[in-house]
């Protein structure tokens, strides 16, 4: 008996030593995705104070819907109704469920994407230390929740009270009804705080954290596959962790801190009390054993009393060991279990005596016990995972210490297993947060670095290391003086010192060179970073590449200068246009006033009329040039390729400018032209109007600046099949400096300042030549003459000489049986047309707006309509549309100040049969009307 007592005393002393060693470890297909959920399950899914559905699961389902490109319909009900609904619905309906075997058979489950913990909640007057303590109790659960299934499956209590939500359960419990509630830890603690319930506490964790998933009914396999893929994408791009941190990080920190402090205090107190009691009992027992041993021979009658006292002490020690919240057992050298405490018994789900005899031990525990054998060296197994009797996985650090029994000298092994499940969760969470932070910093394209207060680099992101071609292992712990040249290191040291002293943010632009030798300009920001207590830890810097912005700014400044310069040229151009427009207007208005003088002779009147006509033509040409340059500026000028007889154009130009030369009294200038192809029917394909316009501008310029000598123009055919035109004169010439400016818009040469004209002719000609597929250039000598050249592609076709169309003369016309309607709101324009047509004897009818024109055409037999476009009441386009709707055969001729080619096409498309641009030329008016009358 004495030997047995001493053996157990020795074992308990060793247990006390192990407890001290391990105490530190204790401290270490449709278009809409319908989502069904619980309206009161914070923080996973709930209705907030604004009546909006929110929570971690809501954010996840919204993020998943964006990935798989499907609309969402969130419906938060009571949990019981949500479960009923998903069983009725078929496709595109999901719900969040905690994984269980029973649920995996009823639903398709996605891969787990979060965990959830449950606890037993009691009033503070009831003590529950384990799940065994709730057997026979009246337990409140949320109807349909996994907690209810768990209680039923494990036969914990027949007295289960179902309620609709956690809030109802807590109110019921707080009011004194029933014994405890089996609820989600986070949701319950949230509602306790929200309802201000002071008499409720979390008693014990019900089971380890459970994984939960998205679930659909068994008809929708494709949706779960899409959701699984979306979950992977959200985890890879970091969006999942943003959502997780939003809802759980702060909650976990609070719960971890509170739990860790509580566990530390409880375990510390237990250990301290256990150690004191054990030391005291060991001392007491040794003293008593010594006393009884000395007296045993003298006082045999007291042996039973001593034995009873020792047995009582052994029971007390055993009770203390059973109170220690660590799994403790011992094995002898023959692999027999000689000790197992209550924690081991609770974990395996069988009594201690059955553990010693290995009776009814589950197979999984037999295997583990067989692996733990005697060794003469201390062994440690870290993070060993095993399920407890309830099927909950727990993580342990296991320490195996060899020892020899004091009296029997038997070799044994003491095994102590510390449950580190919570600690492991914390470590995993911290590791994940660190990984996320590292990934986020490395994903930022800006250069980021951070130093300690001594100027040593303690970290940088990938962009920084790549830019300078650093390797992290060689970079960390170095100073600027070890990494860069002395000038740069001095600059960095100076700015860092100012930041540390002044505690202000530094910002500046600096140039740098990357590993490829490219010069980069950075916008650099450096500031202090501190810990939670305000201690300065070091300096963080962010460098943003603004090279592109810098270059863009330079270009904008350059463009601004160019625009301002162009604006000056435009201002000068407008001033010149004002002068050029007023000059012919002065002649028109002045000679018109003189025509009313009754003393004028017939010759004088004819001369004044001729001068008015010339001024009008000059004004019209000036307006045409302004329109052309406007179309060039807008990129709207059009080229119309057609057949034209080139030699006929050259002949017309000659006779036209010969008359102009004579009118200007330039008798000292001879005009001539040459053609390489002498065939009068030489026909090419080009825009004949634009070709004639180019030559007119060049010949007109030559005539303007040549006072005596000659002007020659013509063309030749080059070997590369181009037509090369030239206009050569013996005029004033162009200086070498000004030759580069002759084709610029809004610029006039000094030589042009005393001459009439817009100064746009050459700029227009250059653009037209380019649109015809050619090029233009100039050769000139100051005071000796100038030659302009341009060439265009030659596209020649065979053609016979067509009959010339003869312009119909007003003389001999007799339209006395014709009615012509003039729709014109301007009385002067009406009078002009009336006078132009007076000699034809036609009946002229005046409509002052478009509506009058429509009404006249309905009731009168009109032979033709001259329709102005811009009129009051009803414009010309709408009037034309209405007239054509009831009389498609009546010819309507648009007569308008809209003079662009696209205006002509637009009006013809609206139903007009012909088009006359103002100012109206008599012969053009007569010949156009003659086509329809």
Report what the structure shows.
It is built from 28 helices and 35 strands. It is α+β, with helices and mostly antiparallel strands and 933 residues long. α6 crosses α7 and α22 (688-704) packs antiparallel against α23 (761-771). The longest helix has 57 residues, at 239-295.
Summarize the structure.
The chain is an alpha+beta fold and 933 residues long. The chain contains 28 helices and 35 strands.
How are the elements arranged and paired?
Elements: H1 2-27, E1 32-38, E2 40-41, E3 45-47, E4 53-54, H2 56-67, E5 71-77, H3 79-88, E6 93-98, H4 101-106, E7 107-109, E8 114-123, E9 139-142, H5 146-153, E10 160-163, H6 166-174, E11 180-184, H7 185-195, E12 200-217, H8 221-236, H9 239-295, H10 303-323, E13 327-332, E14 337-340, H11 342-348, H12 352-357, H13 363-371, E15 379-387, E16 393-404, E17 411-419, H14 421-443, E18 447-452, E19 457-460, H15 462-468, H16 472-475, H17 480-483, H18 486-502, E20 506-513, E21 519-530, E22 536-545, H19 547-594, H20 602-634, E23 642-645, H21 646-663, E24 669-675, E25 683-686, H22 688-704, E26 709-717, E27 722-729, H23 761-771, E28 775-781, E29 785-793, E30 796-797, E31 819-823, H24 827-836, E32 843-847, H25 850-859, E33 864-867, H26 876-886, E34 892-896, H27 901-909, E35 914-917, H28 922-932
Helix pairs in contact: 1-9, 1-10, 2-8, 2-9, 6-7, 9-10, 19-20, 20-23, 21-22, 22-23, 25-26
